Amino acid sequence: MPQVPGEISILRAASEHLAVILQLLSTQLREHHIEISDTRLESAVRGVIENPGRGLILVAFLDGRCAGVAYASFVWTLEHGGCSAWLEELYVAPGLRNAGIGTTLLRAVMDECKSFGCAALDVEIDADHENVRTLYERHDFVALSRRRMVRLLKDEQPLDSGTSSLLAADSR
Predict the structure, then answer these.
(1) CB 92: neighbour CB atoms within 10 A?
(2) What global pTM score does this model have?
(3) Residue 67 contacts by C-beta under 8 Å, 6 or more apart in sequence?
(4) Residue 95 host element (H or E)
(5) Rounded Cα gap, residues 75 and 87, in angstroms
(6) Helical ranges in the chain per DSSP H
(7) Which strand ranges, in their side-by-side order, compose the sheet holding 55-62?
């Protein structure tokens, strides 16, 4: 494990972190060949920062410099018997990987999700990301025998308060 000088601090995202969050998440999503406009990504990130009941974004700083980001969305599942979280993104800047930042972020996400009342934390990983699989296994995540699928339901447009009655309902 490379030695990283300095101390890692983890903060819950706030509006002042928006630019660094967008930069890291944009890079992460491109690495995974996920296409989303900058406008839609910013709208989604703002939606979580402004309504913490939707999920949490944590930002890792190393010596005052943004080193990583994690995002978990909150969902109500039958499978886990109520509130759980979906760890959608955990990203560490390439030059700082394998130095404990990802582990620190993951532990912080698990602690925050527990304190929110989540019964479980789900995650998916790309098949070719072996190193991240071992990170999750070291923290007692287990592989499921399912495959995730998706169908987009609308054109790519920025989210706003009037977009969905579901989104409006969760902000009450």
Answers:
(1) 24
(2) 0.84
(3) 8, 60, 61, 92, 93, 96, 101
(4) none
(5) 11
(6) 18-31, 38-50, 101-116, 130-138, 165-170
(7) 8-12, 55-62, 65-77, 82-92, 121-123
Q: Which helix (H) or strand (E) segment is 145 a member of?
A: none
Sign of the torsion angle spanned by Cα atoms 101, 102, 107, 112:
positive
Q: Do 73 and 85 meet the contact criterion of CB atoms below 8 Å apart?
A: yes
86 near 107, Cβ under 8 Å? no
pLDDT tens digit at each of 172 positions of the chain: 455 557 899 999 999 999 999 999 999 999 888 999 999 999 999 999 999 999 999 999 998 889 999 999 999 999 999 999 999 999 999 999 888 999 999 999 999 999 999 999 999 988 877 788 889 999 999 999 988 888 888 775 555 534 444 444 444 3
CB 146 within 8 A of CB 26: no
Residues in the chain: 172
- List the domains of the chain with CATH numbers: 8-170 (3.40.630.30)
d(CA 71, CA 59): 9
Which residue matches tokens 């983890």? 10
